[in-house]
Structures are given as structure tokens and as C-alpha cells.
Amino acid sequence: MEEWWNALGLFMQSVWCITLFASLVFVIQTIMTFVGMDADGGMDVDLDVDSSGDGDGPFQLFTFRNFINFLLGFGWSIISFQGAIENQFLLILLAAVIGVLLVMAVMAIFRFMSKMEQSGTIQMANAVGCKGNVYLKIPAEKRGEGKVQISVQGAIREFDAITLGEELETGAPIKVVEVVNDSTLLVERF
To answer: Is 118 exposed, middle or buried (0-12, 13-18, 19+ CB in 10 A)?
Structure first.
């Protein structure tokens, strides 16, 4: 092992050290991500530059994670192509391009995955027009509140409800006409 290391030369020894360091940090970051210990404020260096240019996206270009990803692509490319490309400048240029492409690919993957995320917050305006059933009797002519169960945004939810018409008994089919306030719906028999 020592003979192999001494035969590398200073440039390749430096590349191996950088690549092994980046690989170790990458493995640690990956484990922390899957275990749930990866925090936004952790090891990211936020320089307020992102790929979309608007400054408020979650995908920062200059982060510690992206730096490690660049070093991974850069270092392993040099190690992989050192025998095939004799010109050191071309080797470094190709490795830099591969490092940048790796950073872009990882950012694209995370951007795609973040679009699949759902907030779980119910938008009350989406309840208008939804159908459901009375859960607890609703008194006639806005004389009191009852409860309804409706399917909104792909989930069955329970809301307070009032009606303008006749009393709605438990189990009656209803349709949401209006959102009265943040937690009460105006419903009618369906």
C-alpha cells in the first residue's frame, strides 16, 4: 500500500485525499439524511444564491452539501480517467464539468422530490362544492351548528356546519355551499 501511495505523485495523492474526505463526508451526510438528523441549519453555508435566481427557493447553489457533491464528481473523475487522459489540464477540466453536472443532477433530484411533498393543510376554499354527510344534526335556519364529514383534498374531514333551510338529520347527504369562517361551513341537502 505504501509503495502504491509513494508512486502516485503529489497531484494524485492530493486528489485521493480530497476524494476520500469528500466520500466520507458524503456517507455521513447520507446516513444523517436517512436517519432524520439532517437539519437545514446544520452544515449548509447559505450565500443567498440559488439556481432559480429569486433568492427565496430552498435550493441554494453554494452549500456545503453541493461542495461535497462537486468534490465527489471531480475527484472520482480524475481517478477514473487518469489513465485515459494524459493531459492534466484536460483531465482537470473534464473532472470540473463532471463535478458541476453531478451537483446539477442532485439538485434536480431534490427539486423533483420536493414537488411530491404535500403540506397537509386544508384550504377551506376547496371545501365549496364538496359533498358529504351530516355527522351531528344541524338545526334549521342558522339556529345552531352541527357537524358534517366531507371529503376535501383527498381526505375525509369533520367540520362545524350551519344551514339556511330545514333541519338536517344525522346521515343526511349534504353539499357545501359556502365557507362561513375558518371552521364553519354553510351546507344544504344534496
So the answer is: exposed
Residue carrying the nine cell digits 439538485: 107
pTM of the entire structure?
Answer: 0.53
pLDDT band, residue 60 (cuts 50/70/90): confident
Integer Cα distance of 134 and 183 in angstroms: 15
- DSSP annotation string for 76-108: HHHHHHTTT---HHHHHHHHHHHHHHHHHHHHH
What's the domain range around 175? Answer: 124-189
- The reply to whether 31 and 100 lie within a common domain is yes
How wide is the angle at C-alpha 114 spanned by C-alphas 124 and 118, nearest 5°?
25
Which of 78, 64, 77, 47 has the alpha carbon at shortest distance from 106? Answer: 64
159 closest CA partner among 128, 113, 120? 128
At 172-184, the pLDDT tens digits run 999 999 999 888 9
Q: Please state the domain count of the chain.
A: 2
Task: Dig out the grid coordinates for 118 from the structure.
Answer: 404535500
Per-residue pLDDT tens digits for 92-124 = 999 999 999 999 998 898 888 877 766 667 788
Mean pLDDT along residues 58-81: 88
